[in-house]
Amino acid sequence: TLSLHDALPICLKPLTLSTQFSTINTGSIAGTYSTALTLTTGTQAGLVISLNSTGTPTAGIVVNHDGTYLRVTKFTSATAWTNLISTASAYVDGYVIKADVSVTSGHLYLTAYYNNVQIGTQQDITDAEIISNTNHGVFSTYNGNLFDNFYISDNIPNTPDRKSTRLNSSH
Length: 171
Hints:
Layout: E1 21-25, E2 31-38, E3 45-51, E4 60-65, E5 69-75, E6 81-88, E7 96-104, E8 107-114, E9 117-125, E10 135-140, E11 146-153, E12 164-167
Antiparallel strand pairs: 1-10, 2-7, 2-11, 3-4, 3-10, 4-5, 5-6, 7-8, 8-9, 11-12
């Protein structure tokens, strides 16, 4: 049995929103974003799209898996988060989370996929805080989650003249 004198020192550090994202500024919004994911039980990880700030994020879209559900969530302030899709989807190490994003005047359209299966319906996002942001990347609530082949293509699949960026990333 441990007494107070035997206890190990514990250091608690607050988890901030900005530490959960690793992004790049692409200068554009429309495209296909994907990554293969190895998730640690009890955590969440996936993609972040249209993040407004890397230092103090207050708006964006998160497409993530939590081990049970694939979720698409938008946030327009640090405390205003709205679930757009929350669908049970069996988690498997290495499966790919993908989001196809297109934009038209005042609208960002997002379609989410898990293992090449569309999850939910296409989402029409019109929040001014989100639709023009160009920071995209990965999201994780735990630094032990692994991302393989984070990929950005500037065109939706099956269109000509695709340009792409591949990053090997681990958060």
